[in-house]
């Protein structure tokens, strides 16, 4: 669902970058404020959360590299991971993690345009963390209990699947609206584009929901222990270095939808701002010239380092707040 520069025009892209930048600052502040004691909100970020946050973020980064084929179509899909992070870390931490992932993908891998970064953060991060995840909380309540699918208490399992499907549907609708606002898809063809992208992401959402529910169940049983964190980080490296080489090469859901709209798609490649964003991305996307295995492993290392720095700063402020009381 990564939008490129050619889909989003500056009139749409630049305001979205500003708005999502403000949202990231807001989420940062929500994590930093409050008492950091045993009775604090799970969204208040304490030092012990740094390791699981770094490793879970790297896991989502690795999972996004794995495209799986969708039967009966010429398409593939991959996991977004925002609901997974929200369920385990809280929506504010999850949103900052998604911002980090999408930033690294855009700058170093040219996966998603710089001009479209704000839209991508909104579509894959904001809507999932702050719209779809509250739906999961509404269904399951504040307390999560890991349960078997056929147990009498199955709401958490189905709540995660439902919220994941909703997150991808909301993101798909947002892509349609942003594409229409940018002029890359005409108003006349919106219905067809919406039908294509929503239908393919419905299937992807169900698959991601099942995977997410399984991972959350395992994580909750381990209580995000140090061992779980290290295993998660190791698996992220395995995903990046080995399993990603077996990922489907078919177009993902967005690419498949656009291919079926090729006669109606108008690339937004004119103007100085577009040229500048392309020039910047050409210089920053250094991993595109590195063999895939090496690039993917380096990417995991970058996301680990970035999130370690980000959440160490968040935790430091939180600890200072606690020590001054």
What do you see in this structure?
- This protein is mostly helical.
- It contains 11 helices and 2 strands; from the N terminus they run ααββααααααααα.
- The protein has helices at residues 10-32, 50-63, 82-89, 91-109, 117-140, 155-182, 190-222, 226-241, 253-259, 272-284, 292-323, and strands at residues 68-70, 75-77.
- A two-stranded antiparallel sheet has the order 1-2.
- Helix 2 crosses helix 4 (91-109).
- The radius of gyration is 19 Å and the shape is globular.
- The model is unreliable at 34-42, 143-154 and 321-325 (pLDDT under 50).
Give the termini separation: 45 Å
- The 3D shape can be described as globular
What's the helix count? 11
Q: Give unreliable regions as ranges.
A: 34-42, 143-154, 321-325
Helix content: 55-70%
Mean model confidence by pLDDT? 87
Write the element-wise H/E pattern from the N-terminal end onward: HHEEHHHHHHHHH
Strand content: under 5%
Radius of gyration from the CA trace? Answer: 19 Å
Number of strands: 2
How would a crystallographer describe the biggest sheet?
2 strands, antiparallel
Structural class by SSE content: mainly alpha
Strand order of the largest sheet: 1-2
